[in-house]
Amino acid sequence: MRASISGPVAPVLVLGIGNSLLGDDGAGLELLERLRAAGEWSGAIEWVDGGTLGLSLLGVVEARRAVLILDAVQIGSPPGTMHVLRREELMKLRSGGTAHETGAIQLLNPAALLGDLPGQFAVVGIEPAVVRTGIGLSEVVCTALPLAIERAKSILDEFLLCV
Question: Alpha helix locations (H) across 2-138?
């Protein structure tokens, strides 16, 4: 049985995933903090640092109208490439796609099987350059952060129009 969320649930979830102790794998968590700090949004958004919690985040995703996942996205592009993946692209990938074991795809596939897939979802991420023990993002990933934040802002604004 999955954990359920008690109390009122914000319709839009912004979920950062990653491990800040593995270099660029922490890009999603850095994006989460910078986006939250830059935001001008109402209480219709819940901000969650999902770290490396993996499938235990299924209970956080359920009952949402929209989910924006921020993550390191490793799909073979040059390091520092900013990715925006929507439903179609994510479901085609089926596996992989993140720099760590359990990321957006590994979370959304079970949610789809359980019938808990949000109506709208997107992943904004940056292709990592360095995923190994160490604190701090590489220069190429840091350079990509502002573009990723701007894209995430526009997706949030889009999601909030439909809430």
Answer: 27-38, 58-61, 87-93, 104-113
Q: Give the amino acid at 5.
A: I
User: Tokens 């900013």 identify what position?
Assistant: 82
Domains of the chain: 38-128+141-161 (3.40.50.1450)
Which pair of structure tokens corresponds to residue 52?
């490396």
Taking 50 as the pLDDT cut, the residues of the chain under it are: 1-5, 96, 99-100
Looking at residue 4, what is its pLDDT?
Answer: 43
Please, where are the H alpha helices in 17-98?
27-38, 58-61, 87-93
Distances in Å between the Cα of 14 and the Cα atoms of 32, 60, 70, 75, 104 are 7, 10, 7, 22, 12
Closest to 111 measured CA to CA, from 73, 156, 160, 57: 57
Cα-Cα end-to-end distance for the chain: 28
Specify the pLDDT at position 94.
55
119, 159 contact by CB (below 8 A): no
pTM of the model: 0.84
- HSE-CB for 126 with a 13 A CA cutoff: 34
Residues 102 and 138: their CA atoms lie apart, in Å, by 22
